[in-house]
Every structure is written in C-alpha cells, then in structure tokens.
Amino acid sequence: MSYMLTHLTNGWQVDQAILAEEDRVVVVRFGHDWDPDCMKTDETLFGISDKTKNFAVIYLVDISKVPDFNEMYELYDPCTLMFFFRNKHIMIDLGTGNNNKINWAFEDQQELIDIIETIYRGARKGRGLVVAPKDYSTKYRY
Predict the structure, then answer these.
(1) 120-127, long-range: CB within 8 Å, 24+ apart, which pairs?
(2) Which end of the chain is more exposed for a tag (fewer CB within 10 A), N or C?
(3) Per-residue DSSP letters for 37-83?
C-alpha cells in the first residue's frame, strides 16, 4: 500500500515537508518499500491516514534513494517512524530506551493513532518529549 501514500524523493522535499507544516504532526517513515516490516507499517499508515488527517500528515522516504538523513537520524534499521511538529523533532518515550524513533513494524492501527495523537497533544503544548500511552519495554516478553 505504499503507493497510496506520498513519497518524498529527495532531501529538499523532506525538508520542505517538515518546514511547511504548521498545524499537524509530520509522520515520516524512513525505510524501503520492499522491506516486509515497512510493508506492514505502510499498510497501517494507509489505514489511519484518513482518520488522522486533521492532526497528522504522513510521508514515506526510501533511505537508499534519499541517503541525506541516514547519518543525521541514525537510520540503520530497515523501517523507522519519526515525528516532527513545527520543524522540531518530537521524541517519544516508549520505554525502549530509544526516544528518537519507532524502529519496529506497527500493525495495530488504534495503537498508532493513540501514539500520534499523544505526540500532537504534547507538541502543541511545547513539549519536545512525550510519553507514549503504552509501555513497549515488555513488547517481546512472553
């Protein structure tokens, strides 16, 4: 479903997407369209795009075609979600230790909507770090 979402094809487009949006959270998925984790995440992002259109805008960036941000944002994972609001990177405490980004596949639409809404509410209040509604530190425990 990645073809249904807006792709940014160079560094300038990514910068402009982040700079130009004043009222909504900019959600950027860095990764590859052919990666299975990215495919799952893209499907989820497409599913929530209509529900979150009032407070979030979603873009996809292929990290092999646009390598400009790989070192700056440490994009070493196959699929990474990052959030920006008013040209500021918004960090989110998920309980995983990495507050800069989400680097695993998301399949639950409501969970992702809750995270984006939490980021939106926190960022509107001027917070640069928001706490996720759910703790993901025990994600892989059985």
Answers:
(1) 120/24, 120/25, 120/55, 120/56, 120/85, 122/90, 123/25, 123/83, 123/85, 123/86, 123/88, 123/90, 124/85, 127/90
(2) C
(3) HHHHHHHHHHHHHTTTTTTEEEEEEETTT-GGGTTTTT--SSEEEEE
Q: How far apart are CA 35 and CA 66, in angstroms?
A: 16
Tokens of 7: 């792709």
What is the radius of gyration, based on Cα positions, of the chain? 14
Give the C-alpha separation, 69 to 83, whole Å.
Answer: 14
The rounded distance, in Å, linking the Cα atoms of 66 and 113 is: 27
Backbone angles phi, psi at 54, to 5 degrees: -80, -25
Distance CA 38, CA 107 (A): 10
CA distance 19 to 21: 6
Digit-coded pLDDT (tens) for 109-129: 999 999 999 999 999 999 999
Where do runs of H (alpha helix) occur along the chain? 11-20, 36-49, 109-124
Please provide residue 9's backbone torsions phi and psi, each rounded to the nearest 5 degrees.
Answer: -105, -5
